[in-house]
UniProtKB/TrEMBL annotation:
Residues 1-11 have a biased composition (Pro residues). InterPro entries: TLC-dom (IPR006634), TLCD (IPR050846). This is TLC domain containing 4. GO terms for cellular component: endoplasmic reticulum; membrane. The chain crosses the membrane at residues 29-48, 68-86, 150-172. The gene is TLCD4. It comes from the Eukaryota. One of its GO terms (biological process) is lipid homeostasis. The keyword Membrane applies. It is a multi-pass membrane protein. Keywords: Membrane, Transmembrane, Transmembrane helix. Residues 1-26 are annotated as: Disordered. It comes from Equus asinus. Residues 20-222 form the TLC domain.
Amino acid sequence: AGARNHPPPLPARRSRRPRASRPGTRHRVVSTCHSLVVGIFGLYIFLFDEATIADPLWGDPSLVKVNIAIASGYLISDLLILILYWKVIGDKYFVIHHCAALYAYFFILRDGVLAYVGNFRLLAELSSPFVNQRWFFEALEYPKFSKANVINGILMTVVFFVVRIAPIPPFYSYIYSVFGTEAYIRLGLLRQSAWICTCVVLDVMNVMWMIKISRGCIKVISLIRQEKAKSSLQNGKLD
């Protein structure tokens, strides 16, 4: 019998998600869900929880404890995922961030102190959805200068500054204002140091990330302006 003529193989489809890994995708999806839950709930507590507003150091922490417990559960699970998939999504700064936050949250959950302060720090999570969305755009290979990518990048920079950097001066001003008061002294040295040292560590990292994000945003905006200038110059020559 003669040899059969087999049809040529179909060209392999190009993956729509070549850079995205399953652990990375799940990690970012869970991070976004967590940040929206604790961020929005934290904003409600920040604006309407009279007990902690009236006494930021010793006010009734009932609502805040719920939010802190959700955040703590997420941080513990995220730490385990980072360790298990270290080669894919491992990041030493995330480990430092999570451990520092968990150390401070331990005192809030155990002793019911610094509830307002702990919740205030959770508002920083409102920037995470934009950071995660940038990762999704990169994983899906969206062009850097696509409208969606540029808008998300600008929003990410603005929101990151508003919730993580702008609160730094008033926050440390508040620490200075309560330093030495009876309410502050009652906290004891261990809880005082946990509060201040943890916040310093987290804010140093926030400033580092803000510098990195700002540089990226400025670079993209500058390149867009250059491209627009080139295209307008070329259009002028054609005319």
